[in-house]
Specification:
Blueprint: H1 2-24, H2 36-40, E1 43-52, E2 55-59, H3 74-86, E3 92-101, E4 104-111, E5 114-116
Antiparallel strand pairs: 1-2, 1-3, 3-4, 4-5
């Protein structure tokens, strides 16, 4: 009898742990055992092109973030765009993308170096 109890207990514990981990990543903000990073972070995914003296090239804004950073919200994107245009690297930056947040997914545009939600 004790030999059959050990595998049964291991299975019950494994299933309980897996269920706890799965519910921990569900999108219910503010609940206990929820990972708040997914509930409150804002991610911006954009494809940008920069224009300088009539020449257009792709712009990777993630090259201008600090090492290890990957979360980029609209205010941070606007700051990077301001830096790139003020430094003279580009005359204007345009593009399209989307913003992912706790409110869902929204389209975003960059028109003449300005973020437009």
């Amino acid at each position: 009898m004790p030999e059959s109890m050990l595998p049964a207990a291991q299975i019950v514990i494994t299933v309980a742990l897996a269920a706890w981990m799965i519910t921990g990543f569900t999108p219910l903000p503010g609940r206990w055992l929820r990972w708040k990073m997914f509930c409150h972070a804002t991610f911006t995914i954009v494809q940008l092109t920069g224009t300088k003296d009539g020449h257009t090239e792709p712009v990777n804004v993630y090259d201008h973030l600090s090492p290890g950073s990957f979360i980029l919200g609209p205010p941070q994107l606007q700051t990077i765009l301001d830096h790139l245009t003020a430094s003279g690297r580009y005359d204007r930056i345009d593009g399209i993308g989307r913003v992912l947040s706790a409110r869902g997914e929204q389209p975003v545009k960059v028109v003449a170096s300005r973020v437009v939600l």
